[in-house]
Write a structure and sequence with these properties.
This is Spermidine synthase. It contains 23 helices and 13 strands. The chain is an alpha/beta fold and 684 residues long.
C-alpha cells in the first residue's frame, strides 16, 4: 500500500484535512461518481438528439475521465476544482445550444438524415465527450486518493458500496420522475462536501459559484420547458386545433413522437390506422373480443380499437408519462374506459409473460428512437421486431385471430424485411399495404391464411433484402452485417483522443505496462456486462427497472467476489481462470429460447446463475490480482481505461451478435492470463 503521510506543500493548492474520514469519504465520492455519470448520460441525451444514436458516447467519455482521474490521483495532491467549473460550462452550452429535430422538415428520423436545429454532430459531440471526461475525472481523483489510504480490497469494497448507493439513488429519482434540478442539487451538495479549498474565496469562486450556476440553469430548464421527466425521455407537449379537432402534440428528447387525436379524425386522415381492421377476418366480422396493443402511447390506437368494437383491450406502453398524458388529455379518454387495461412494461416482455389469447395483436408505431442505457446498439423496441417475437405473437392469437403492425418504415428494404419476418413466423405471406409517404405501411398476418383479407398478394421481398432480425442480432435498421462507417470513424477518434489524454495525464505508458493484464480484464468485463444487460433485457424487458436491477446485480456480484477474496482462502489464479472459462462456456451453451420457455421465477434463477457465475469468477481473479499490485491507483486506472476499448469492441455485436461477444471476451481473458506477471499465477 502507498502511504500518504507527508503534509502537502503550502503552495501546492492542496486541501485542508477532509471533513470526512477516509471510508465514508470513499463511499460518498464513489456514489457521487456513478450518480454523476448516470445523470450526464440521461440529461445530455434529453437535449442533444444525436445522443439518441450514440448513447454510449457519454459513457465512453466517463470511462476515460474516471481512468484518468485514478492515474492523476497518484501524481498530484491538488483538488480537482476544474470538475464543477467544466460541468457548469457544459450545462450552459447544452441549454444554450440544444439539438432538436426541425419540426418543419420532412426528413426521415434516423441519424444520417435528421434535419436538426442547433450545432451539427461534428461540433457538439466532441465537446460533450471531452467535457464528460473532464467532469468525471474530478470525482475519480477523489476516489483514487482514498485508495491510497486503505488496503487494496478494503478500498475496492467501499468503492463498490458507494457505486451501489449511486445507482439506488438515481433509480429512486427516476421512479419519482424527478426533474434535473433535483440531480443538480445532489451534485452541488456532493461538490460542497468533497472539495476542500484552502481559503473561503477559493471555495466560493471554484465550488459555490459553479454549483449555483448548475442548479440555477437546471431550475430554469425545469420551469421553462414544462417537461415531464420519465425514466426514458424528456417529454414535452402542447395543444392546438385543426378546425374543431383538438390535438395534443408530444415530443420526446426534442423529437416529434406522437399526437393524441380523436379516433374518428385519425381514421379519416391516415389510412394505416383503419387497415388492420379491414385486412383481418375478425375485424371485418366485428369479432374483436380481445385486442392487444403494443406501443399504446397516449391512447389514439386504443381509442380506434374501441371505436371498432373491441370488448377488451390490453394496452401496453413502456413509458408511464406517455400513458399519464393520454389518461389526462386524450380527447376520447380511452384510458378511462372500463374495457381497457393498461400495462406499463416492455411489449416483448408482456408477450412472454401473459397467458391470454387475442383476436388481434397490434404493434402500433413502437419506434422509440432511444437506446437502452449501457447497450450501445439496443433500442427499447429492438426485441419486438425479431422472428422470435413474431412467433410469440402468433402463439398468443386465437384461432382465426391476426397480427398487424404499422409505421413509417422509410425504406423499401425495411418493409420487405418485416414482411419476410412475418412470413417466416406465420408460415405464409402477409398482407402488405403501402399508404402515404415515407414508406407508410401496414403488414398484416392472420393465424392462418384464411384469417387475413388481402386485396392482392405480396410479391415477396426484393433482391438484397436482409434476412429477418433475430434475438441474437436484433438490429432491424442495420441493412448489412457490418459496422456503419460513421460509428467506425467516431470510435477511432475516441480511441485516439483517449491515447493522447492518457499520455498527457499519466506520462509514459511504461508506467502502466505491468498492469496490461488488468487492462484486458477491464476490456473483457465490459463486453461481459453488455452481454448480460442485453440478455436480461430480452428475458425480462428493456424497462429502466430491469436495467437498474442488472447494473446493481453486477455490482453485488463484484462485491461478493471481493468479500469472498478478503475473508476466505480462494483457489489459485489458474483455477479461478478455469472457473471463469467454464462460466463463459455455460453462458454460450444455454440458449435464451430455452430460458424464455421457463416459468418466470425459475427463469430468473437460471438467468442469474448463468449470467453471474462468470462475473463472479472474473472479479475474484481481478481482486486477487489487484491485491498484489504495487501501485493501486495506476492498476485500477488501467483496468478502467480498458473499459473504453471494451465499449468500442461492443459494436462487434452488429457483426457477430451478442453471443459472439462471449467468444471475444473469452479470448481477451485468455490474453489477460497470458500477460500476468511471473510469480502471480500460483497465488492462492
Amino acid at each position: 500500500m502507498i502511504a500518504v503521510d507527508t503534509p502537502p506543500h503550502p503552495d501546492s493548492g492542496a486541501a485542508r484535512a477532509p471533513r470526512l474520514a477516509v471510508r465514508p469519504r470513499l463511499v460518498v465520492a464513489s456514489a457521487f461518481m456513478l450518480f454523476l455519470e448516470l445523470a450526464l448520460i440521461r440529461w445530455t441525451g434529453s437535449n442533444i438528439v444525436h445522443l439518441s444514436y450514440f448513447t454510449n458516447f457519454v459513457l465512453l467519455g466517463s470511462f476515460l475521465g474516471i481512468g484518468l482521474g485514478f492515474l492523476r490521483a497518484g501524481r498530484t495532491t491538488r483538488q480537482p476544482y476544474y470538475s464543477p467549473l467544466v460541468l457548469a460550462a457544459l450545462v450552459l452550452i447544452v441549454l444554450r445550444f440544444p439539438v432538436t429535430v426541425n419540426r418543419e422538415a420532412e426528413g426521415i428520423l434516423y441519424f444520417t438524415s435528421l434535419s436538426t436545429s442547433g450545432p451539427p454532430a461534428w461540433a457538439i459531440l466532441p465537446v460533450i465527450f471531452v467535457a464528460a471526461a473532464v467532469v468525471l475525472m474530478g470525482p475519480a481523483e477523489m476516489v483514487g486518493r482514498c485508495f491510497t489510504e486503505l488496503s487494496r480490497l478494503d478500498a475496492y469494497r467501499y468503492d463498490l458500496i458507494g457505486s451501489l448507493t449511486g445507482i439506488v439513488l438515481f433509480s429512486a429519482l427516476s421512479f419519482l420522475s424527478a426533474p434535473p434540478v433535483a440531480w443538480g442539487l445532489i451534485v452541488a451538495v456532493a461538490y460542497g462536501v468533497l472539495l476542500q479549498p484552502r481559503s473561503l474565496g477559493r471555495y466560493v469562486g471554484l465550488v459555490t459559484v459553479p454549483s449555483l450556476v448548475i442548479v440555477g440553469a437546471l431550475a430554469f430548464e425545469t420551469l421553462n420547458a414544462g417537461a415531464l421527466w420519465s425514466p426514458y425521455y424528456k417529454v414535452t407537449h402542447k395543444f392546438f386545433a385543426v378546425g374543431d379537432v383538438p390535438i395534443m402534440d408530444i415530443q420526446v428528447n426534442g423529437i416529434p413522437h406522437q399526437q393524441a387525436i380523436p379516433a374518428r379524425n385519425r381514421l379519416e386522415w391516415e389510412r394505416q390506422y383503419a387497415l388492420p381492421y379491414e385486412r383481418t377476418a375478425v375485424g371485418t366480422q366485428g369479432r374483436l373480443d380481445d385486442v392487444l396493443i403494443v406501443g399504446a402511447g397516449s391512447g389514439t390506437d386504443v381509442a380506434i380499437a374501441l371505436s371498432k368494437g373491441a370488448k377488451h383491450v390490453d394496452a401496453v406502453e413502456i413509458d408511464p408519462k406517455l400513458r399519464e398524458l393520454g389518461f389526462k388529455n386524450h380527447p376520447d379518454r380511452p384510458y378511462s374506459d372500463p374495457r381497457v387495461t393498461t400495462h406499463i412494461t416492455d411489449g416483448r416482455a408482456f408477450l412472454e409473460r401473459t397467458d391470454r389469447k387475442y383476436d388481434l395483436i397490434l404493434f402500433a408505431l413502437p419506434d422509440s428512437l432511444t437506446l437502452v442505457s449501457g447497450a450501445s446498439s439496443l433500442r427499447l423496441e429492438s426485441y419486438l421486431f425479431t422472428e422470435e417475437s413474431m412467433r410469440a405473437a402468433r402463439n398468443h392469437l386465437k384461432p382465426g385471430g391476426a397480427f398487424a403492425m404499422y409505421n413509417y418504415y422509410r425504406e423499401l428494404w425495411l418493409v420487405d424485411r418485416l414482411a419476410s419476418t412475418a412470413e417466416a413466423a406465420f408460415g405464409h405471406k402477409p398482407c402488405v399495404d403501402e399508404v402515404g409517404a415515407g414508406r407508410q405501411a401496414v403488414i398484416t398476418a392472420g393465424f392462418t391464411p384464411d384469417a387475413q383479407v388481402c386485396p392482392s398478394t405480396w410479391l415477396g421481398a426484393s433482391a438484397g433484402t436482409p434476412p429477418p432480425a433475430v434475438d441474437d442480432r436484433p438490429f432491424l435498421y442495420l441493412h448489412g452485417r457490418d459496422i456503419p462507417s460513421i460509428y467506425l470513424i467516431a470510435l477511432g477518434l475516441i480511441l485516439l483522443v483517449s491515447v493522447l489524454a492518457v499520455r498527457a495525464v499519466a506520462g509514459p505508458f511504461r508506467r502502466m505496462r505491468p498492469y496490461a493484464d488488468l487492462f484486458l480484464l477491464g476490456v473483457s468485463f465490459l463486453l461481459l456486462e453488455t452481454k448480460n444487460i442485453t440478455g436480461f433485457a430480452l428475458l425480462f424487458g428493456t424497462t429502466w427497472v430491469v436495467n437498474a436491477v442488472v447494473f446493481a446485480g453486477v455490482l453485488v456480484a463484484v462485491l461478493a467476489a471481493v468479500e469472498v477474496t478478503r475473508r476466505f482462502r480462494t483457489p489459485s489464479l489458474p483455477v479461478m481462470y478455469g472457473i471463469l472459462f467454464g462460466g463463459l462456456v455455460l453462458a454460450a451453451l444455454v440458449p435464451n429460447s430455452w430460458l424464455l420457455g421457463l416459468p418466470l421465477p425459475l427463469r430468473a434463477v437460471c438467468a442469474v446463475v448463468v449470467a453471474f457465475l462468470p462475473i463472479f469468477a472474473a472479479n475474484v481473479v481481478f481482486a486477487k490480482r489487484f491485491n498484489d499490485t504495487a501501485d493501486a491507483t495506476t492498476a485500477f486506472g488501467a483496468n478502467l481505461l480498458g473499459a473504453i476499448l471494451g465499449g468500442c469492441l461492443e459494436y462487434l455485436s452488429l457483426v457477430i451478435g451478442y453471443n459472439g461477444l462471449l467468444i471475444v471476451a473469452g479470448l481477451l481473458y485468455l490474453g489477460a492470463f497470458a500477460l500476468m506477471p511471473r510469480g502471480t499465477k500460483a497465488v492462492a
